[in-house]
Automatic annotation (TrEMBL):
Taxonomic superkingdom: Eukaryota
GO MF term list: ubiquitin protein ligase activity; zinc ion binding
Gene3D superfamilies: Zinc/RING finger domain, C3HC4 (zinc finger)
Catalysed reactions, semicolon-separated: [E2 ubiquitin-conjugating enzyme]-S-ubiquitinyl-L-cysteine + [acceptor protein]-L-lysine = [E2 ubiquitin-conjugating enzyme]-L-cysteine + [acceptor protein]-N(6)-ubiquitinyl-L-lysine
Name of this chain's protein: RBR-type E3 ubiquitin transferase
Record-annotated RING-type domain positions: 165-342
Species assigned in the record: Fusarium torreyae
Assigned EC number: 2.3.2.31
Region (Disordered): 100-121
Entry-linked CDD domains: BRcat_RBR (cd20335)
Family annotation (Pfam families): IBR (PF01485)
Keyword Transferase: yes
Length: 342
């Protein structure tokens, strides 16, 4: 079971379906842009494709690692019993040689303390790390509908529970193996589930962003092993949104998606989700001409009217005759201020 309550097979199927959707979208978009130009939408989809491939590799490696750890745990008792049997047989053989007065017999057995092979058979640190990193806690499963973790009791191997040291999670106060916890800059420890809850809460409440403990931000890169690629992507998107001054959101009520600055051109914001156009000045639906909410531009227009300045019939920009004839041609300069003199 995964930390988000999804088994590996379901995760792999979900990834495969999303990859097929990307391929279908790519085939439908071929030849729909100028040669040599790469639209922002294609860059976004390529980034998403790479995230899916990375997540697919993570799930595959995770399943293999956990399978190895479980196999070692399951076989530990058998291996220990076989090792003990071999050791006893060796001792019996040596004891028989001593009784036969064989000069080649070894010294008395009391002088040879038995070797403890238990650590070599099942308590090796590498398998402890594999289990700690990839095995979910024994009693919690994430619920997508409620953004909470449901309690599902089931037994845990007594060998694992007794052999490994435990530390307390600052969030839920449960005990976990040290490697199953992340340590924040303030030295507090959090389990994977509590860390995810901190991030999800910060995504919904800007006052909690970035996710932090004791007023110190929790670094993302050093905690990638605890955070899914999807969650990291959401973090980066929210970081861009919350750091953007004078944000623009899609004016379509059923959408209201944040429009990143690269999608805003000439005061028109193109929603990356639904494609709806929004005025970045008044935040309403896109419209032609100078936005009535742009007070500065409106003042310039009144000044132009009072001074009988001319405006381009095509783009509405104020122009001035500097030289040449009275023919008006369109310029790429900023609207309103183009060609004005004091």
């Amino acid at each position: 079971m995964e930390p988000l309550g999804i088994d590996d097979a379901s995760l792999m199927l979900a990834i495969q379906l999303q990859q097929e959707d990307l391929e279908l979208w790519e085939s439908s978009r071929k030849g729909k842009h100028k040669e040599g130009e790469i639209p922002d939408s294609e860059l976004a989809f390529e980034t998403y494709r790479q995230e899916l491939e990375s997540f697919q590799t993570l799930v595959s490696d995770q399943a293999l690692s956990l399978s190895i750890a479980r196999a070692v745990e399951a076989d530990q008792g058998i291996l220990s019993a076989l090792a003990a049997t071999d050791e006893q047989s060796s001792k019996d053989h040596e004891y028989a040689l001593r009784l036969s007065d064989d000069p080649n017999a070894r010294a008395p057995l009391e002088s040879e303390p038995a070797e403890d092979n238990s650590k070599d058979l099942g308590e090796d640190g590498i398998f402890e790390q594999i289990r700690a990193l990839y095995a979910p806690p024994p009693n919690q499963v994430y619920n997508d509908d409620t953004d909470t973790f449901d309690f599902i009791p089931h037994a845990e191997s007594s060998q694992w529970a007794v052999a490994r040291p435990m530390k307390e999670c600052t969030g839920c106060l449960d005990q976990f193996p040290p490697l199953a916890l992340t340590t924040c800059p303030c030295s507090h420890d959090y389990c994977r589930q509590c860390l995810v809850k901190l991030f999800l809460a910060a995504f919904k409440d800007e006052s909690l962003f970035p996710p932090r403990c004791c007023q110190e931000a929790i670094p993302v890169e050093s905690n990638r092993r605890f955070l899914s690629p999807e969650l990291v992507g959401q973090y980066r998107a929210k970081k861009m949104e919350f750091e953007t001054p004078d944000r623009t959101y899609c004016s379509k009520p059923s959408c209201s998606t944040f429009v990143p600055p690269p999608f805003v051109q000439d005061e028109v914001a193109h929603c990356p989700r639904c494609g709806h156009k929004t005025c970045s000045v008044c935040k309403g639906d896109s419209h032609s001409g100078i936005c009535p909410s742009d007070i500065g531009s409106q003042q310039v227009l009144r000044m132009a009217e009072e001074n009988h300045w001319q405006r381009c019939n095509s783009c509405g920009r104020v122009v001035e005759l500097a030289h040449g004839c009275n023919h008006i041609s369109e310029s790429n300069s900023h609207p309103i201020t183009s060609g004005l003199s004091s």
